[in-house]
Amino acid sequence: MRAIRFHEHGGPEVLKLEDVTVGDPGPGEARLHIAAAGVNFVDVYQRSGLYPMQLPAGLGVEAAGRVEAVGAGVDHFRPGDRVAFVGGPGCYAEARVVPADRLVRLPDAISDRTAAGAMLKGLTAQVLIRRTYPVKAGDVVLWHAAAGGVGLIAIQWLKALGATVIGTVGSDEKAALARAHGCDHAIVYTREDFVARVREITGGEGVPVVYDSVGKTTFAGSIDCLRPLGMMVTFGNASGPVPPLDPLLLSRKGSLYLTRPSVFTYVARRADLERSAAELLEVVGSGAVKVEVGRALPLAQAAEAHRALEARATTGSLVLEP
Fold this sequence. Notes:
Blueprint: E1 2-6, E2 16-19, E3 29-39, H1 41-48, E4 57-58, E5 62-70, E6 82-86, E7 95-99, E8 103-105, H2 112-132, E9 140-143, H3 149-160, E10 164-169, H4 172-180, E11 185-188, H5 194-201, E12 207-212, H6 219-224, E13 226-234, H7 248-252, E14 257-259, H8 263-266, H9 270-286, E15 293-298, H10 302-310, E16 317-321
């Protein structure tokens, strides 16, 4: 079996396609034949060392495919079942053994490529807009990186909930893509002051919530976009980690809330994973949310996938196919 591995932290060039052995599943485990694996910024953070890992290691925390075998005590899946997986790294591979309680059964209407591009990003969107800050009809929401994989899913979902969406993007092409997915106001942050535009759009009031996966370059401005008692949701570091923060700033800016959620914490319990996944698969299956897989590359081109992601040269989801 072939898998992408790396033996030192660094740039995309450390990713190598290697032959590895995949054994039989043990108690509570399943062996998954992988048809497609999602590529996400968490993979970049792990590869670079921002999120240090014990080496050598694999990458990829989401995949879709079929169950090949199950271990003792696994009675809710059987060989041949189409499933998606969200969990620990190692999905840049042709097959792997995974904890069976991290698998989700896939409906026939959702393809492997769609599932691989949707599970982590879609669960992230579900956690952010349904649980971290439960968005309601009439809310005005600011979403950074609106043309990204999570962003395009979230925008459509937010519109289905009745929210008004302000999105920031890096180019006119990405602005057009965001608008096509329901973004009401697309701000090209490379030439527009997004804080001034948000205040203009909201009549000076600000927004109740900001979702920010960009990090260092947008954090301070995001805080200034919030109305009193608003919530700052920071969930990524695409431009680098957010600098240390004096909590008194939150008081001075209007008694703001700040949270740094992890989707893995929110779906750590099997019941929560099933509930969140069911809601995600329902909105995707109904057509309310269409998953945009902007690019699919062969497994051997994992390094190229990382280069494209880090250069923000991708839109929608990016997947690898063994």
